[in-house]
Design goal:
About 35% of the residues lie in helices and about 25% in strands. It is α+β, with helices and mostly antiparallel strands. This is B30.2/SPRY domain-containing protein.
């Protein structure tokens, strides 16, 4: 196809024909090839751009991962630091707690020791008070007691300003007795303990002491019914009857012996030089409940002498009963 014109505009260029006509097909072909080249070049450039973009994306991803790793490591380091700090605080707290525990334990130990010591002191005071109370009860009826010159055998004499010493002034070999002024009432409803001691001086060859019913016994001869006594040769007499003979129980010059009764149990107590005769286990007869007994002593040999102690300071510890 031919177009009668001097030039034709096909795109940006004008291609004149040699004969004055324009070759449209040639122009289009040339332009098409050029276009294809441009398109191919553009596609290549796009491909290169895509590759670069992909590389950049990979690098960016790597950077992100690296950054994340760095951040993570940073966090780890931060956590490690924080953890280390926490451990230090925990260690410090444990030290403080241990120190406080040791101080508390020591304080508790000191407090416990103090409490134990205080308790020991209190118990000692209680024991002392109980001991004193028992002694007071034991001496309730004997505190102001002494030998009665009006109820005394003529062969005996009472000497000393307190009327506690009895001396045998006669020459006959016969039992001679004296009673104390004040009796004690044996009452099993009472918790009183009645007790007294005698110390033997001079010869002390033959004697017996204890407590008895005054109205049923004479001043000469051995005490009988209603008499509970302890003889110098070791004999124990219960209601006027001999119960036991033991050489270990015998006593003489320089010895201190005692006799008593627990009103609540009616058990009789015998002692020698501050020690109780544990193997001796006797009781007052039930028929003598609510009866008044008088302390007495009987001497048999010339120059025999005793001194009574009605309290409060005995060789035997009443608190041990």
């Amino acid at each position: 196809m031919s177009i009668s014109t001097n030039s034709i505009n096909c795109g940006d260029d004008f291609i004149p024909a040699e004969n004055g006509e324009v070759n449209v097909d040639a122009i289009c072909l040339e332009n098409g090839q050029e276009m294809e080249l441009k398109m191919a070049k553009l596609e290549l450039e796009n491909k290169e751009q895509k590759l670069k973009l992909q590389e950049m994306m990979v690098e960016q991803k790597a950077l992100k991962e690296k950054m994340a790793k760095i951040v993570q490591e940073k966090d780890k380091n931060a956590n490690a630091y924080q953890f280390s700090t926490i451990l230090e605080k925990i260690s410090e707290l444990e030290k403080q707690q241990k120190h406080q525990h040791e101080n508390t334990t020591k304080a508790n130990s000191d407090q416990f020791s103090k409490m134990q010591n205080d308790q020991k002191i209190i118990l000692e005071k209680i024991n002392e008070l109980e001991k004193e109370q028992k002694q007071k009860k034991a001496l309730l009826n004997f505190r102001q007691n002494y030998w009665d010159a009006n109820v005394c055998h003529e062969n005996l004499e009472i000497i000393g300003h307190k009327n506690l010493i009895v001396h045998y002034k006669g020459i006959e070999l016969v039992w001679c007795s004296v009673f104390a002024v004040h009796p004690f009432l044996l009452n099993n409803n009472s918790s009183d303990i009645f007790y007294y001691e005698i110390s033997i001086g001079n010869k002390g060859s033959r004697l017996i002491f204890g407590f008895a019913l005054k109205q049923q016994n004479k001043l000469d001869g051995r005490m009988g019914n209603g008499a509970y006594s302890y003889e110098s040769d070791g004999k124990i007499w219960i209601n006027g009857e001999r119960q036991e003979i033991n050489d270990e129980y015998s006593y003489g010059v320089g010895d201190t012996v005692g006799i008593g009764v627990n009103s609540a149990t009616q058990q009789i107590i015998f002692t020698k030089n501050g020690q109780r005769l544990d193997s001796v286990d006797f009781f007052v007869a039930p028929s003598f409940a609510d009866v008044s007994f008088y302390p007495f002593v009987s001497l048999a040999y010339s120059d025999d002498q005793i001194e009574a102690n009605f309290g409060p300071n005995f060789k035997f510890d009443l608190a041990t009963l």
